[in-house]
Amino acid sequence: MTHATDSGAVIARRALPGAPLLVAAGGARPDRVPVWFMRQAGRSLPEYRRLRASSSMLSACFDPALVCEITMQPVRRHGVDAAILFSDIVVPLYAAGVSLDIVPGTGPVVASPVRAATDVANLPELAAGAVRPVADAIGLLLPELGEVPLIGFAGAPFTLASYLIEGGPSRHHERTKALMHSDPRTWHALLDRLADLTRTFLQAQIAAGVDAVQLFDSWAGALSERDYRELVAPHSAKVLAGLGVPRIHFGVGTGELLGAMRTAGADVVGVDWRVPLDEAVRRLSAALPDGPAPVVQGNLDPAILLADFAVVEREVRRIVAEGRAAGGHIFNLGHGVLPDTDPDVITRVVELVHGLEP
Amino acid sequence: MTHATDSGAVIARRALPGAPLLVAAGGARPDRVPVWFMRQAGRSLPEYRRLRASSSMLSACFDPALVCEITMQPVRRHGVDAAILFSDIVVPLYAAGVSLDIVPGTGPVVASPVRAATDVANLPELAAGAVRPVADAIGLLLPELGEVPLIGFAGAPFTLASYLIEGGPSRHHERTKALMHSDPRTWHALLDRLADLTRTFLQAQIAAGVDAVQLFDSWAGALSERDYRELVAPHSAKVLAGLGVPRIHFGVGTGELLGAMRTAGADVVGVDWRVPLDEAVRRLSAALPDGPAPVVQGNLDPAILLADFAVVEREVRRIVAEGRAAGGHIFNLGHGVLPDTDPDVITRVVELVHGLEP
Q1: Residue B106 neighbours by CB under 8 Å, 6+ apart
Q2: Catalytic annotation on B185?
């Protein structure tokens, strides 16, 4: 497989035809159920906490060696079927020159919130070169990973917009919703800019060699399906169109949106724990009745990992069984690993999933 | 209508046969769509902020004159079709003797979290006399309210359990979920105790004269339908059984749970903004196919009140139109009033709803 880089050079993409993650993402049945965990590279791991003790989140995301090491940690420890690039949703905004910081215990804080058409016009663009450290990290990762696929990562335009408009994490997204409805022209201009930026970021990762991407719309679940389809999905579709690698699309609390998230251009739709996978497959099939059998990712409740392992095992078996209704199933959590999770439990889940019939 | 008080005395319940809220709750069509707002008595009102400047939340909830005045404020200002008793979810726990405080900016904080069978056994019971100030407040309110119904209020067992187990507000409810799955015996013992406490609290309010009740399961939306039906709904059903007044049952993010929340014993099911009312009616009908036409409450997104009024008006008209699919519709938000809401917008929504054909 080949693809063009920004400079027009055509580089060889590594082929991993047997990788269970890529087989499942393609809608076929691999010889074992592939499994990875959102936030597998993170605070549940003591080796991560040691490594991050002396660095800020943003500086870590732009340090290729550190990104490589953090991304590798859960692959080595758990034997998961994919690595997910260690990054943060606001990385491309920061790289473009938006003044923001990630404050421990709070999250991203934006110095000058975006609330008017002039703010949108003044948003900087992202040059692919500005995320060179991320591409460099991918370059370090590929030989380390061997046959294990690397998933690239970006936040979706709606989620980025909410950070920019609210000035930080928001529970109710009220300024975001007020803007999208009161001033749809400014809203669409903003989302269009953010779609370009997100697409540039993902293309840079793809050019550097990631094997798949996950578009993370953390907060899309705060929207009604009507608003999502009209005001958000077209911009996510612009990001996802024809990227050339499998595209995973996920948000938490998106039971009402699964069909719309599929038709926005996802090959794989992530499902949280609120909707069983067989029901998710029904919703995804209804959204694209002439399309291929849906491929799903998820849906173990991250909180379950804190219960007794007998409970974890029962849930894992149920999810793998329900996942057989899909064209392909990538086992994952329904949201990120919680920091208090015992990493040994994660390792045991990987072993359990690998021992079950796909 | 009559009912027995705790002392065995039978007192007359006031009859409000023409009150639009009660007509709609009974599944009939009143001459106007009744409207009230969750958290209508609260921080959006300057007169509330003035009144609360010098009191803690808990002391306010046990001051009959203050509860009466705060409960009346939105009725006077907005002309809503119902008052909702000013209270807090943890009031019956505090009244029973659980050591807790409501910390501004954080929420309820429980001194000794409940995590083992002995903790459950040591939970104090609620004597109806311990919530006498709440009953006294209701006694003050009824003559003030005249023909406007008063809705009583309690948090549901699951939501109370989460506060007790986590020790405060929780985003992921991980200890709660771990306990419910790992130790279902302790879980059910805890929920049973909390159901008794909640029922006692609601019965005290009913004995004092409230015209309806709302059971608020703030966080039920964090559960899958399977877990909700098995581990939570039976306890909410125990609370709601045969209370003798219309029962409203609400939680945010409960699109997957609407049917189960109805069959737990609700006359009216609250719907947030993620599911349109006509779709909610379909789900509620499917849950009880031989039952009466469902009655719904909701579903304006509270964030919409911060948008231009043209947007608010469009949404209100759509919701009232979609609500005609129900046996009865009580207009409300899909969650509580946000503190930054302009109270004049709320008043305009009331006028708008009242001018629309039911």
Answers
A1: B168, B169
A2: no
Domains of chain A: 2-355 (3.20.20.210)
Contacts of A158 (CB under 8 A, 6+ apart): A191, A217, A219, A220, A223, A232, A235, A236
Residue B342 annotated in active site: no
Residues of B near A (Cβ–Cβ under 8 Å) read 172-178, 181-182, 221, 223-226, 253, 255-256, 273-276, 301-304, 306-308, 311, 335, 338, 340
| Choice among B88, B119, B136, B183 that is catalytic | B88
- Select the residue from B224, B232, B254, B257 to test the A interface by mutation, using most A Cβ atoms within 10 A: B224
Active-site residue identified among A13, A14, A29, A52: A52
Asked whether B128 and B116 are in contact (CB, 8 A), the reply is: no
Contacts of A172 in chain B (CB under 8 A): 302-303, 335, 338
Q: Is the peptide bond before B332 cis (omega within 30 degrees of 0)?
A: no
How far is Cα B205 from Cα A52, in angstroms, rounded to an integer? 53
Tell me, rounded to whole angstroms, the distance of Cα A31 from its chain centroid. Answer: 24
Cβ of A256 within 8 Å of Cβ of B275? The answer is yes
Instruction: Name, in order, each residue with C-beta under 8 angstroms of A1's C-beta and a sequence gap of 6 or more.
Output: A12, A13, A15
pLDDT over 60 at B3, yes or no = no
Band the pLDDT of A13: cuts 50, 70, 90: confident
Q: For residues B345 and B110, give the distance between their C-alpha atoms in angstroms, rounded to a whole number.
A: 36
Residues B308 and B310: their CA atoms lie apart, in Å, by 5
Question: Looking at CA atoms only, how far is residue A24 from chain B in angstroms?
Answer: 25
Q: Do A311 and B173 touch (CB under 8 A)?
A: no
Q: Is the dihedral of CA A184, A190, A196, A197 positive or negative?
A: negative
Q: Which residues from chain A sit within 8 angstroms of residue B169, using beta carbons? A: none
> pLDDT by residue (tens digit) across B241-294?
999 999 999 999 999 999 999 999 999 999 999 999 999 999 999 999 999 999
Question: Tell me: the pLDDT tens digits for B52-93?
Answer: 999 999 999 999 999 999 999 999 999 999 999 999 999 999
Q: Which of B274, B276, B338 lies nearest to residue A174, judging by beta carbons?
A: B338
d(CA B297, CA A287): 28
Cα–Cα distance measured from residue B293 to residue B278, given in angstroms and rounded to the nearest whole number:
12
Confirm whether B88 is a catalytic residue.
yes
β-strand partners of B152: B213
Task: Report d(CA A89, CA A120) in Å as an integer.
Answer: 19
- What are A295's strand-pairing partners? A328
| Cβ–Cβ < 8 Å for A283, A275 | yes
